[in-house]
Structures are given as structure tokens and as C-alpha cells.
Amino acid sequence: MKWIDLRSDTVTRPTKPMLEAMMQAEVGDDVYGEDPTVNLLEKTTARMTGMEAGLFCTSGTQSNLLALMSHCNRGDEYIVGQLAHTYRYEGGGAAVLGSIQPQPLDLEPDGSLDLAKVAHFIKPDDYHFAKTKLLCLENTQGGKVLPMDYLAKARAFVNTHGLSLHLDGARVFNAAVKLDVAVEEITRHFDTVSCCLSKGLGAPVGSVLCGPEKIIQKARRWRKVLGGGMRQAGILAAAGLYALENHVARLEKDHVNARHLAAGLAKIKGIKIDSEMVQTNIVFADITADMSKLHGHLKENRILIDPSSHLRLVTHLDIQAPDIDHAIGAFQSFFRG
Ligand SMILES: *Cc1c(COP(=O)(O)O)cnc(C)c1O
Questions:
Q1: What is the pTM of this model?
Q2: Which ligand 1 atom lies nearest to the CA of residue 140?
Q3: Above pLDDT 90, what percent of the chain?
Q4: Each residue of 147-174: pLDDT tens digit?
Q5: If you ran DSSP here, which 8-state letter would residue 277 be given?
Q6: Which atom from ligand 1 is nearest to the alpha carbon of 168?
Q7: Which fold has domain 16-246?
Q8: Is 61 near ligand 1, meaning CB less than 6 Å away?
């Protein structure tokens, strides 16, 4: 019997045809720029996001860090959400390795940053202050899709203030599928975007940073410095290419499964869900019960959740509709007590 792993969309295993594509990959030494599969992945992702160039990175953390280090110099500042991944969940890399000061601000309930508040925190040109260079947004943010008109406003805002705009688009394909637009419609507002291949898209490894040629050249240099220069990485890039070709449209299934899961759990006394917030593949819920007991009960039913204080369930490629029914049943039996 299979495990139903709802901890994250990073837990997916490569499918048979994906492994087949990896086996067939033509490879070369990518540090010499000679891996045709890596080159194709970079070109393909750049084309999809409407950018000049792409860079295959080991992880989303690396890709975001390279973007920050390529937009900002030592003593510069970037403005970012308090709960944004680049600020909170990347070990403080911008400060630790880039000498870049973060200016975190509280996120709005829809996952955006209030631009009037951002304006207030842009530092004047005065040597008491770090130089504000970059605004960083995240889409999806906690599974929520940033509104399209907000993206246009954010672009106009950074133009007015002479900032650059980076998107942590770890799940930007989920956002595009949810809005039923080409991903380029979202990414065209940004200078750079980091896209994860190893989340909902189901590849085992990697992210691609896309942006203008000049920024990507800088990022390529920093990637080598950070130990991210990989050799016959085409084996991994082939999985990413396969994912981009075959696993984008199917994200809709993950969204349907997440909505189904949220609807089922919302009916259980003891679970509180704001279904407005279930827009893509992530379900957040508040529960009255003891988390570690719930964790144990679900484990007995071959269901894995992250036993942290807040319940966060993520659907993905390895979760099918019957798994959702099974999971709802296990939650029901726990809360029935
Ligand atoms: C997962 C994630 C990343 C990058 O994560 P890695 O584990 O380093 O690949 C970046 N931003 C967001 C929003 C993420 O969810």
C-alpha cells in the first residue's frame, strides 16, 4: 500500500517516462557551456517566461540568492515579505553570503506587499542608509495567487522608484494554471524570475533563474563561486524539460484535489479552513486537536503530514483523487475520536 505524503510537493518521485528522458539525455560539461540538454532547458524556460536568458540552478534557494546577488551589491538592500521564502526560509543567505540587507515587511492577506508601505521603507540617498535596490515578490505566496492588476501596479511602482523587481516563482506555474494564462503573462512584469522544477512540476532537482542576459551572466559567475557549477547536468535538465512539456497543464488536477481536500476537511468539527485561501495546491487549516496525536493517527493510516503547529497540506503529482478521499476519511475518524 502506498504512502500518501501531504507534507510538500517536493516529495514526488520521477515518473518512468521522466526517467527514460533522463537516460536518453545528451550531455556535456556544462561549466564549459557544452551540455546541450542544459542549454535547451535554459533556453526553453527563458522563452516560456519571456526572458532573454536562463540559468539552471541546483535549487530554488540558490536561484533566488543568485538573483539577489546579481541585482544588489554589498551594502544594498532588498524589500521582501516577512514570511517570504527568500527572507525567512533561506538561511539569511542574502545577508550571510551577499552582504545584502533585507528590509522585511508584513504581507497583506492576499500575499502581496502594500506598495504604499513599500514606498515608505525605500531609503533616501544618504550615507546613513543602505541603498534600496530591489523589490522581491513571491507567486504563489502560501498557495495564493497574486492578482494580475497588482503585478502591473508593482511594475509601475518599481519603475517610478528606480528599483528592480524579482519574482520568487517557485510555484509560478501553479499561478499561471490557476489564472489560465501563459506563465509569461505573469513573469513579463518582472526583471528576473526563479522557477522551481522540483516542486509541483515533479522533477527531482533544480530551478531555473530567468532574466536579462546581463543579469544572468553575473548570476552564472556567482553560481560557480557558490559551488553550483555542475558538469554533465543534462541528466537533471532532461527531467526539467520533461516536466515543462508534460507536467504544467496537469497542475490543475493538484488544484482540484486541494479544493476537494479542503471541502472535505471543512465539514469536520474541530477543523477550520478559509477556503478563499485554497487557490492552488496548498491547504492551510487550524485545528483544535493535539498535532502530534493527529500526526500519529494519520501515520497509522499511511498518511504523512508535517507535525508543526499549523496544518499545511500540499497536493502533487503522486497524489490521486482516491488518496484525497482516504485522507478525508482518516481525518474524520480522528476527530470523531
Ligand atoms: C521551495 C521554495 C523555494 C526554493 O526551495 P528549494 O528547496 O531551495 O528548491 C523558494 N521559494 C518558495 C516560495 C518555495 O516554496
A1: 0.97
A2: 13
A3: 96
A4: 999 999 999 999 999 999 999 999 999 9
A5: G
A6: 11
A7: Aspartate Aminotransferase; domain 2 (3.40.640)
A8: yes
Give me the half-sphere count of Cα atoms (radius 13 Å) on the Cβ side of residue 113: 28
| Domain 250-336 CATH (choose: 3.90.1150.10, 3.40.50.300, 2.40.50.1020, 3.40.50.720) | 3.90.1150.10
Long-range contacts of 31-35 (CB under 8 A, 24+ apart): 31/224, 31/229, 31/230, 31/231, 35/231, 35/232, 35/233, 35/234, 35/237
Predicted pLDDT of residue 194: 98
Q: What percentage of the chain reaches a pLDDT higher than 70? A: 100
Q: Using the mean position of ligand 1's atoms as its centre, give its distance from the Cα of residue 121 in Å.
A: 26
- Domain positions in the chain: 16-246, 250-336
Cα→Cα distances 313→52, 110, 201, 334, Å: 36, 19, 17, 16
**What is the 182 CA–ligand 1 centroid distance (Å)?**
21
Give yes or no for residue 337 having a pLDDT over 80.
no
> What pLDDT band is residue 308 in, cutting at 50, 70 and 90?
confident
Res 276: pLDDT: 83
Q: What angle do CA 34, 35, 39 make, to 5 degrees?
A: 100
